[in-house]
Amino acid sequence: MSLPSGRRLAIDYGQVRSGIAISDINGLIATPLETISSSTLLDRLLEIRGEYEIAAIYLGLPAHLSGVEGESARLVREVAKKIAAIKVAPVYLVDERLSTKSAAKAKEIVERFGVDAVAAAEILDFSLSGERSSGKRFGEAVNE
């Protein structure tokens, strides 16, 4: 099954700041977009919707290495519902356990976009690989 074209976004959400990454129209390449204040996330997503055709939003779900979800995961699930409610695109939660550590290694890119945006690109790359493997959207679908 082939997925419809359209850019995908990924978000590495944090209580203070969030990273955003975006894919190309065919969902092949993940690129850091920006790091923003989390208090402006919903407004920024509405702006991005006006700039790009967004097919899906992947939101990193932090879990402990054991897989157990803690307070951070609970907060992300709440944010995911808020993002789904503004109807930019369908929202999916994906495992992000090692994205920030992996992103920190890309020093030059981190200096340009911020570690959160690079972590979002890691989440997006993982999600795009999942799409290609399964032929469908990847992760846990979020309803309003």
CATH class: Alpha Beta
CATH architecture annotation: 2-Layer Sandwich
Rg, Cα atoms, Å: 14 Å
Strand content: 25-35%
Q: Uncertain segments of ≥5 residues (pLDDT<50)?
A: none
Q: What is the count of structural domains? A: 1
Q: How many distinct helices?
A: 5
Average pLDDT for all residues:
89
Helix content: 40-55%
Order of helices and strands: EEEHEHEHHHE
CATH third-level topology: Nucleotidyltransferase, domain 5
Within CATH, the superfamily carries the name YqgF/RNase H-like domain
- Compute the separation of the termini in Å: 26 Å
Structure classification: alpha/beta
Tell the overall outline.
globular
Strand order within the widest beta sheet: 3-2-1-4-5-6
What's the β-strand tally?
Answer: 6
Oligomer: single chain
Structure described in brief:
It is built from five helices and six strands, in the order βββαβαβαααβ. It has about 140 residues and is an alpha/beta fold.
Can you tell me about this structure?
- The protein is of the alpha/beta class and 144 residues long.
- It has one domain: Nucleotidyltransferase, domain 5.
- It contains five helices and six strands; from the N terminus they run E-E-E-H-E-H-E-H-H-H-E.
- The chain has helices spanning 41-51, 71-85, 99-103, 107-113, 115-134, and strands spanning 7-12, 17-23, 30-37, 54-61, 91-95, 140-142.
- It is globular.
